[in-house]
Amino acid sequence: MADQSLLLPPSMTVFERGWLSSNNILFQHEQGTALVDSGYMTHAAQTLALVQHALDGRKLDLLVNTHLHSDHCGGNAILQQAYACRTLIPVADADAVAVWDEERLTYKATGQKCERFTFDASLSPGDCLMLGGMEWQVLAAPGHDPHSLILYCASEAILISADALWEHGFGVIFPELEDESGFAEQAQVLQVISELDIRVVIPGHGAPFSNAAAALDRARSRLDYLASDPRRNARNALKVMMAFLLLETRQFSLQALDGLVRGNRIMWAAAQKLDAPVDKLIVALAEELVKAGAARLEDGELISAR
Ligand SMILES: [Zn+2]
């Protein structure tokens, strides 16, 4: 039997994607249609197809991004081309998007890609937004990304948590890799979430879930583990970024990976926080990906298993 606590209002559909693309949340209501987050660029055609199919001839009026990591806004360009939809982005990224500064938007720094898009207005913490005929509060969610926002609907007790809270954990705390504060902000975000009345959480990745309290407990203990030795965050970040590139390109040599790590600012920052030489580190992390079932290693080539 379906978990009744996970019932979503009829105006809301969640497209659960994977790890390369974030989930997308579609709203259809007489007042208009909207999509929250648009996935990664290499999945953009699939994102458009999912939206087109669900809208069944209707137009997409509004596109909203929780944050501008490449796996959350990589479908923006294709959706804007298809629908000329009004687009709202977090206020703290508005200047960087306006001039398309790929360094500040972190695409260059992580080796990830994103097709250029535009925006019509920005969203700030404290704003209210109508999606699917429901009112959503815009909350700040720094930690994983200092500019990230999350959306909360009090009348339905639903939280769109982006990468601030997953059922098992949360996104990499990126600011700490470059010696900026992120653990304290993430703790504060978890505290804010814990004070909300929540029936369903729709995370940026993974299936929607209902037991927010248990997820918050897991997130807090994970955060304590990472914050008590920042090398753990750096090592995890490097592995996650490797896994992401592997999902995108399907295969690369360990030698090519060495070049990628050295050539991308955030990967390099993470590697430098660790005591091991980069080549040894890459082999160790590649072996961990193999052990986790995410990849196989053949003659120095790392091959995606997913
Ligand atoms: Zn993210």
UniProtKB/TrEMBL annotation:
Top-level lineage group: Bacteria
InterPro entries: Metallo-B-lactamas (IPR001279), NDM-1-like (IPR050855), RibonucZ/Hydroxyglut_hydro (IPR036866)
Domain Metallo-beta-lactamase residues, every copy: 21-205
SUPFAM superfamilies, per the entry: Metallo-hydrolase/oxidoreductase (SSF56281)
Protein name, as recorded: Metallo-beta-lactamase domain-containing protein
PANTHER family documented for this protein: METALLO-BETA-LACTAMASE DOMAIN-CONTAINING, METALLO-BETA-LACTAMASE SUPERFAMILY PROTEIN
A Pfam family matched in the record: Lactamase_B
CDD domains: metallo-hydrolase-like_MBL-fold
